[in-house]
Amino acid sequence: MASVIRSIGGWFxxxxxxxxxxxxxxxxxxxxxxxxxxxxxxxxxxxxxxxxLETMATMEQAYAGxxxxxxxxxxxxxxxxxxxxxxxxxxxxxxxxxxxxGLFERFDEIRGELDTVIHxxxxxxxxxxxLPLAAIGRHDSPVVGAKMANLGExxxxxxxxxxxxxxxxxxxYGRLLDHNNLRPEIHRLxxxxxxxxxxxxFALSSQLQQLIxxxxxxxxxxxxxxxxxxxxxxEFDSEIGFAVRSSAFGEDSAETSFAGLYDSQLNVHPDxxxxxxxxxxxxxxTPQAMVYRRHHGLRNExxxxxxxxxxxxxxxxxxxxxxSDPQDAVDxxxxxxxxxxxxxxxxxxxxxxxxxxxxxxxxxxxxxxIAHKTTAFALRPGAGITRREIEAxxxxxxxxxxxxxxxxxxAALDLETHFGAPxxxxxxxxxxxxxxxxxxxxxxxxxxxxxVPNIEGEPLxxxxxxxxxGAAGGRVSWVHSDREALKVPKNAVLVIDxxxxxxxxxxxxxxxxxxxxxxxxxxxxxxAREFGVPAIxxxxxxxxxxxxxxxxxxxxxxxxxxxxxxxxxxxRRRRNLMEGSPIRGILETALTHIAPLTLLDPNATEFRPTxxxxxxxxxxxxxxxxxxxxxxxxxxHKFPRYAAKQLHHNVxxxxxxxxxxxxxxxxxxxxxxxxxxxxxxxxxxxxxxMVAIPWDxxxxxxxxxxxxxxxxxxxxxxxxxxFKKPYAQRNYFMVSKNFMNLQSRFGFHFSTVEALAxxxxxxxxxxxxxxGGAADMERRSARARFVADILADKGFRLKVIEDTVAARASAxxxxxxxxxxxxxxxxxxxxxxxxxxxxxxxxxxxxxxxLENDIASLNRx
Amino acid sequence: MGRGVxxxxxxxxxxxxxxxxxxxxxxxxxxxxFEVSQAYDAETALAMLAENPKIDVVLLDVKMxxxxxxxxxxxxxxxxxxxxxxxxSGYANLETSVGxxxxxxxxxxxxPVRIDELVYKVEDAHHRKxxxxxxxxxxxxxxxxxxxxxxx
Lengths: 861, 152
Known about the structure:
Oligomer: heterodimer
Number of helices of chain B: 5
Distance between the termini of chain A: 33 Å
CATH class of chain B: Alpha Beta
Number of strands of chain B: 7
Helix content of chain B: 40-55%
CATH topology of the domain at 130-311 in chain A: Dna Ligase, domain 1
Shape of chain B: globular
Largest sheet of chain B: 5 strands, parallel
Number of strands of chain A: 30
Distance between the termini of chain B: 13 Å
CATH class of the domain at 130-311 in chain A: Alpha Beta
């Protein structure tokens, strides 16, 4: 900063002598036009700078926060940042043609690296189009998806019964997309939509699904599937139906469950198998799946779809087994939910089912809850499944006898041991009493919730079962249909009658979920736990909850209270589901090319285009150089209208003012300009701040303070000359009506103030930096921190590096910026030489109160 | 106060093959006092530019069937160097965006566009056009005026 000011001063002194050449009218016009054009370039550069910094801040905030975002966020922000930085380079080049061309090359290199980070090529799956279940194991999940890989493993490694079948692999899915050239269109559609809005999400989802369901099936896929079908048919007497299930890579892992988010189709006729495959493939883009991926930072490309085709089991009983209590990770008893007929009855979460609990080996059944079972799912002959009423005499009979319960528990424990984690197992028991494992995946728990305080008064509704712990408040939002789903506001308390998995798409905007029916097993329950959304299911009639009413849901207390109870509120922050996710990783790497500032000191010789390493470096470089170029141009051209004038003022300071455009009220012909001839909002605000409260002079120095100053002065030649004239001041202003840039030296301090306070709120900004001082580095740094402290609650973003404090505020209305400029003016005047008292805590505290009081009174005047 | 000066509206040409997008944007700009014309492909746009010298700013979509935006902007800048072009795109792509800027685009915006930001950009683009026109005039020895002012 020091050398910049010296050189600015040099130019000014050279060109503001008494002899001013006479210019013709035309020459005057030409130079005016030139000035205005340069000023326009300068302004565009400044605006692009502000917006580039905003984009960078947006990316950094997203990275640091817990709100989920998708690849579209990363790509569009990285692109926007790059475009804005490129504009800055273009306009710096307009101000100083050819002088900084190294920048274009460096930008290109950085952009190239960013490109590879944010557009990584999707993996090409080179694998068979169809694989039989007997041939796969755990490590095949990139090709067959986690669900099928696990199932293959369960059979081949553990010897447990699984349904016979095969997998249509991710390679086949890739073929489907490529044969129809769908990838670019999918990418384009996803890019162009803000999926945070439910209506946009639903529309996009149906477009994407439509694309896939109307795609033509390539002949090689068709042939492969036909071949697998023939091989299977040989093993069975009658025509078998198939369960067609999604199996995506990343589904059913320890981190993500994708519970019930992709469609399963049951009892599909072999003739319809390919159609079912296409439909299941399309379910990759249901609203709930897209929200889910977004929350977990998964790219669409990372979740390639495989589709499992498994022979239907004609189940006498079916259900789910957990090797630990789903609500309590500490309780390691085995929980088995069972229904008559297909396992779907349990998995759906809608119906009354039996619950059995066993302890660990030696196994015993320790708890039985037999439900009054009225409904079951069964195979419909030919194709599909059907709901049937259960005969009255069977309704209360246990779906399983104890021997079967223990067999299921044993199998579940074997799975737990093999996979090394508690398991969520879907099972069926055949007419021949054979146990078949349909699916197994790791269990998910919610966090341990913070304790919830006792609440006075009767709740509106109580009962049900806590499906996901915690407590939260919001407005009641009943959802019966997709149409109503579109209207759910943020932080609503979702009220539903059945825990249908499709409402999982709404969980990111829900404060809590309550349901009339349902229990702890079930897809929506699993996802609610994963997202950390408090949920109570099976509460019975919820008519008492009126739409729009504010309520607080206390899931642990199984109660819904009227009104918002602040003590409960949002007791627990949602888990940061993005952590460790692929997209967050990409954002992190992208940020390394964008955000860090490596070029710190404009005066260092390293401050050169070849040394810029990030986009932020480029913005810093362009801004510094643009300011310097504007000062230089004004002084180089002997042009009275725009040449620098000295401010006519009665203090031993020198103020030089350069008019950029419309900063003076009229043409100033002479050497001096008066304050009332200056037409610059920010400058007047700064000035007002500086003179509002008289400066009492430098603070009384303690002996050690003075000794420090003397020591520094002898050590540092740059300080020794001004020490002889302690109040030597040099201040250079560039002004226009709404813009001001001040490069200033007050004694040993260097500061820059730049402000734009115009009609466009989101282009307005104020930056301020202060550096230096006469005392040692420790005190100077303390002063920088002191100033940062004072500014901390006044709307600035602050950075302190050693003895430099930098403050920035942006996108504010004109009056607010001007009020803040006034505060800066005050600080400029009143923080002079404060570094000298920084060793003395009492003085620091005194000064802090004085400054804070003064600042408070400033904008009252 | 002072002589009445009628400010003429800034004239904007919208070019995009998505008819719905063009219609809706045209409405929003018209409400904000812009004079709006529309074209759904590059050829029509070039023809309109040739016929109407009053067009100040072109909002040009990058991905169009037939002649795409990046090809069109080359021709536009060659034939009508003073007309400012702002590129709009539904795809964020680092290479094309910077490429478009290098071809002389005033700016490159991603859809969906925020209407206030778009309005500022159009105004800034128009301002630049005015400055360039004035510069040319002053080089020719004419007096400079704000090209959209007419004294009444």
